Each structure stands twice: as structure tokens, then as C-alpha cells.
Amino acid sequence: MVTLTNELLDHCNAEYHFNGKDLRGVVAAAIYLTGRKYGFSISQKKIAQITGVTDVTIRARARELGNIV
Length: 69
Hints:
The chain is mainly alpha-helical. It has one domain: Cyclin A, domain 1 (Orthogonal Bundle), CATH 1.10.472. The chain is 74% helix and 0% strand. It is built from 4 helices and no strands. The longest helix is centred in the middle third of the chain and has 15 residues. The protein is globular, with a radius of gyration of 11 Å. The mean pLDDT is 80.
């Protein structure tokens, strides 16, 4: 899953600049989206606890990443 998340972030970095965004939130959203795409069952809240961001941040960054990918 790490490789898939890295590929997502590389693709997004080429297409979109995350100026002013806390990169922890971007990475957390990438982990969440990759997990969902490949059938892993992990909640936004759990990822938020591990990464130190809020689940609201994950949802917002996931929407942004979803629009890019």
C-alpha cells in the first residue's frame, strides 16, 4: 500500500501544488484514498489519530485529491 500511496502523491505533485496545506493532511488523505481504492477497511478517524490531523482535514484533502486523480 505504501508504493501505491507514493504513486498517488507523485501523480498529484506533478499536477497540483499543495501550497499552504499541511502535508500531513495530504499524506493522510492519500493513504485513506489508496486504502479505499484497494479494499482496505480503515476509518478516517483511525488515520487521523495516527497522523495527527483531524478527520475533517482528511475529508477535505481527499476531496481535493479526488478531483485531481
